[in-house]
Known about the structure:
Blueprint: H1 5-32, H2 34-55, H3 61-80, E1 102-103, E2 109-110, H4 112-126, H5 145-164, E3 172-176, H6 183-196, E4 201-205, H7 206-217, E5 231-237, H8 246-260, E6 264-269, H9 273-288, E7 294-298
Parallel strand pairs: 3-6, 3-7, 4-5, 5-6
Antiparallel strand pairs: 1-2
Helix pairs in contact: 1-2, 2-3, 5-6, 8-9
Amino acid sequence: MKPTPELIYEYRMSRERAEREARERREAACTAIPRLREIADQRRRLAFDTGLMIMRGEDSSELRNKVEQLDKEELNLLLSAGLPPDHMLPHYRCKACNDTGYVGDTVKKLCPCMKARILEEMYATSGIDTQQSFAMFRSDIYPCDRQKRIALKAKELCEGYAASFPKCDPMGILLMGGTGLGKSYLLNAIALEVSSRGYDVYKASAYNLINAFMESIRGRGESPDILGPDLMIIDDLGTEPMINSVTRETLFSILNERQSARKATLWATNRSLDDILASYGDRFFSRLVAPRETMVLRLEGDDLRLRLK
């Protein structure tokens, strides 16, 4: 997990704005209360003298006491003027990192605020729905015990997969079943859990993925990164345009290259296994459903979306 150039710029602008506004408030306060400027000048001189004494190995406690007295005087002047104690200090968005995005003295690491912003950006651009999580999974909408039992078992397996990521065995999942059974929901819940731990997730429908590759072939966009994401999720396999041999070869290339690189790939489809074999050929099919590579989960029952209206 690392910030984009846009996020780095956002944090720099926020930090510079807070510091500029602090300088403006300080200047206005010093103009209204000249003693504040005198205190600032005296404190700078004392800080310099203290540094020299420390370098010479001399006792600087008396100078430190003078600095503390100046700090108290400055505070009293601000309060007497009806101003808050931090009036002349920068008001950063995050007090932990001072809008740098990083915390730690010796070893720098991402501040929680930066991690949250990275996830916000990731969700905004990846199509991950923050409302479709394992925690928000509803078991009360199933019309019969059999459908509910199958769905809960699939949820349990998907939740275990997400919890063990990236040490998953097998590395892939194929969710099968009719429309509105919760396949996309489970894929999204996995994406949400995995991305929240800092892994890079790419999520797209097969239709949009193939269109993106076609646009790159025509020179109107960049080709999607096949091997970059830690987790790749391809929803609605079977809805993509079948363009000569391009579609089949592209999907095979994604599957084959990611399996060879031991990269996790999740799929969802309304198609049956026979349909997948007929549409994409034996090369793709045999790799997609190989037990050592993919966990195949089948959902059954009625369309749940009709029950949510």
